[in-house]
Amino acid sequence: xxxxxxxxxxxxxxxxxxxxxxxxxxxxxxxxxxxxxxxxxxxxxxxxxxxxxxxxxxxxxxxxxxxxxxxxxxxxxxxxxxxxxxxxxxxxxxxxxxxxxxxxxxxxxxxxxxxxxxxxxxxxxxxxxxxxxxxxxxxxxxxxxxxxxxxxxxxxxxxxxxxxxxxxxxxxxxxxxxxxxxxxxxxxxxxxxxxxxxxxxxxxxxxxxxxxxxxxxxxxxxxxxxxxxxxxxxxxxxxxxxxxxxxxxxxxxxxxxxxxxxxxxxxxxxxxxxxxxxxxxxxxxxxxxxxxxxxxxxxxxxxxxxxxxxxxxxxxxxxxxxxx
Length: 324
Prior knowledge:
There is one protein chain. About 30% of the residues lie in helices and about 25% in strands. The chain has 2 domains: about 180 residues, HUPs (Rossmann fold, 3-Layer(aba) Sandwich), CATH 3.40.50; about 120 residues, TPP-binding domain (Rossmann fold). The protein has about 325 residues and is of the alpha/beta class. The mean pLDDT is about 90.
């Protein structure tokens, strides 16, 4: 059977936002190619997750199950997917661009004489797959000229997952790969964590982000008050975090987190390309900057040209008044 197969990664029995984003990318590719979309889950007991995924407008959910897939290993996942590909013969295999996928997907593609087109940010008619180069300064368009399957990983925040679910559940099948313990050359360890994060900006729906226009660390509470009034998470551009004014886990950009909230309020941020890369998936961008020529206004849906030390308190007061 051919089609588009999306490998959905779970963490501790829960599918994160990037898993649903990968599925949204698969559905976008399906709209261009006319191919059906199937979801793939790997593990030892994936029944509950499969039932959840089956309601997300897919043709089929494949549970790839084996006791040796209880914990992630590159060997186990590579062997299991290699056998699934041989059995199902997909045209495309899509992954979320996570640390785990970066560990095993290139090896899987190489085994089959293919390459992984990684960190894709857009899928155009053709299909053409867009990747960013030189920290977002350039875009490269890639086409898969070879035989199936085509391996793609998609960047976090690049594709917006659909919130709606299907009325009827898709078919769920189980695939049992043949894996021996001797084939697993590594011992599973603790999953990688980028940092001991207290906030996952990638899941935040409202974000207020602060940049160098704030001038001094003592002025950060001014923006924090606005974020609190909105019920938003506080984020920052790289200079703020490099200066130690806010922790690195709150940095948005090419060297920080990629976000896609419903509202991204940029306060005193000029709009360097490295920052825009991290927030380009935002549904609505509002920028406050005293420089009318600031690049952030090119990415903004709404812009306020003014002194943030005047605009932010007025905006905070208006938000608080609206809640009364």
